[in-house]
Amino acid sequence: MTILLFVMLGLFVFMMFRRNKKTQQQQAEMQSKFAPGVEVMTSFGLFGRIVSIDDAENKVVLELSPGNVATVHRQAVTKVVDKPEEEATVVPDDASSLTVAEADAPAATETPEETIARLNKEDKKDN
Length: 127
Hints:
The chain is of the alpha+beta class.
């Protein structure tokens, strides 16, 4: 029973070290992506562009908006933001997309008097 306990403890310690090593590798990979001009997000939710990096003091200067800069610790920058590719959406100039079913049908030619009569009939149906 004691041997089983030591084996479980050893397995737990092994998994803990393995997870730590993996996390450190991911963090080192992300830190290598840091360069001026890269869009990043901090651990407290600020988005900005890296202006400069001071490796000696572990500081990063971020431009949050034009003219606004903030200096944060290098470890506070937690994510490199990749801009998603925007799909071009086509917006029609007219309202043809609103009436898809009627777009296939030929346009009806009715006189103004016929239109008034039709609208009056529809109004009486609603009441």
